[in-house]
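Quick review question:
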């Protein structure tokens, strides 16, 4: 007798949602009936978009309908409006009512403006405004730019990349009298990656002439520049301010959330107090909002859901490992930190890849899948200089391309 398949709804169309879809079809197979609820029919490789204004990369997009069909799932173009955990039913934004046996909420966070008057980095859509900034820099219409990390849950690495790549742009064009500043509430640059990586990033910023002010919150954009809290040094002179967004949780009716709207989960990414409901990625209360972390949360939820559906899987708890590929305008830096604790405190930073392929988002299932379906690069990939071998290689470098899920050498 054929066992009835478990009805699984995945709400979202980003990294965590796709990681879960791919993982569940591998772990649970025909034990689950999968439906992906996504507001758009495209997945965009957002982390690569940081390099678009400099003309060295273009964020690729992937067809969600094709991915779902390839894995025997259905795609419904709609959004999650409300959850009724008692009846195990959701209501979509278009008014449809859908039943589930298990629900994974991977809808992401909502980016908002942190500083009025600043250029807010929200993914591929900001490219035009930042390209205009670079054009104004080239025409000597502006000389001073401040990069601001706002308080709250975020992922600061893209702002460091913009500062470093802007500094490389200034150097390559021989622009003079340009002043670049970076303001962050962190105690040290990219402190999440530990002392060794933070020191290396601080040194790199110093070599590029980027002034760094740690331990300060950006407060506002005024005519003189960027005001700070504490205001012990006065405004940072700036004609343009570039800021990360302030992130807010989705505040989904029917699900618990904190004061900022983020969903609390346990170590298996089950929503606290709600049977059969899981959440992963930026929508949760986990403070680090990064694609690799989102994929690891999705993996924990995937194993728990697969076991729930009867698959021979022993669910492992979420144990975050942070992997960051920092684009610098020259040789990238690879950083890895076991932020869950209990694994030792020596976290490496290197010009050599610490994982393979050296992708911006390292997902167990998503990266290999996109590797098979990514268009040839460039232009979709990101050309970088990669040192070959270790310290004994004599500094030999080859040109390589980072594409979603793969890296290949160029002649």
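Suggested answer, residue by residue:
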């Amino acid at each position: 007798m054929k066992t009835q398949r478990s009805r699984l709804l995945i709400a979202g169309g980003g990294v965590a949602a796709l990681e879960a879809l791919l993982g569940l079809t591998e772990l649970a197979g025909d034990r689950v009936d999968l439906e992906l609820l996504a507001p758009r029919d495209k997945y965009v490789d957002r982390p690569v978009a940081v390099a678009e204004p400099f003309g060295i990369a273009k964020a690729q997009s992937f067809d969600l309908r094709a991915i779902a069909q390839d894995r025997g799932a259905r795609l419904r173009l709609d959004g999650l409006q409300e959850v009724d955990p008692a009846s195990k039913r959701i209501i979509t934004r278009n008014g449809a009512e859908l039943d589930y046996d298990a629900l994974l909420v991977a809808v992401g966070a909502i980016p908002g403006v942190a500083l009025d008057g600043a250029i807010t980095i929200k993914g591929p859509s900001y490219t035009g405004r930042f390209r205009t900034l670079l054009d104004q820099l080239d025409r000597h219409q502006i000389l001073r730019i401040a990069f601001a990390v706002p308080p709250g849950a975020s992922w600061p690495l893209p702002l460091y990349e913009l500062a470093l790549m802007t500094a490389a742009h200034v150097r390559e064009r021989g622009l003079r009298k340009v002043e670049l500043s970076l303001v962050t509430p962190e105690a040290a640059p990219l402190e999440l990656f530990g002392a060794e990586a933070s020191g290396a990033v601080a040194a790199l910023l110093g070599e590029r002439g980027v002034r760094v002010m740690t331990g300060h919150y950006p407060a506002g954009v005024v005519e003189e520049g960027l005001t700070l809290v504490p205001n012990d040094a006065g405004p940072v002179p700036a004609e343009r301010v570039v800021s990360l967004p302030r992130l807010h949780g989705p505040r989904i009716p029917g699900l618990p959330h904190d004061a900022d709207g983020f969903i609390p989960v346990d170590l298996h990414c089950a929503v606290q107090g709600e049977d059969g409901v899981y959440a992963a990625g930026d929508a949760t209360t986990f403070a680090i909002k990064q694609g690799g972390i989102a994929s690891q949360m999705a993996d924990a939820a995937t194993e728990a859901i697969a076991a729930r559906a009867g698959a021979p899987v022993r669910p492992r708890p979420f144990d975050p490992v942070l992997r960051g590929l920092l684009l610098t305008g020259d040789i990238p830096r690879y950083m890895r930190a076991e932020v869950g604790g209990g694994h030792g405190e020596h976290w490496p930073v290197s010009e050599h890849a610490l994982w393979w392929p050296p992708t911006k988002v390292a997902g167990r299932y998503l990266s290999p899948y996109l590797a098979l379906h990514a268009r040839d690069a460039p232009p979709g990939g990101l050309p970088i200089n990669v040192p070959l071998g270790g310290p004994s290689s004599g500094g030999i470098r080859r040109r390589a391309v980072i594409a979603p899920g793969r890296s290949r050498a160029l002649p």
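Why it works: Residues 6-110+247-308 form a domain with the FAD/NAD(P)-binding domain fold (CATH 3.50.50.60). The radius of gyration is 22 Å.
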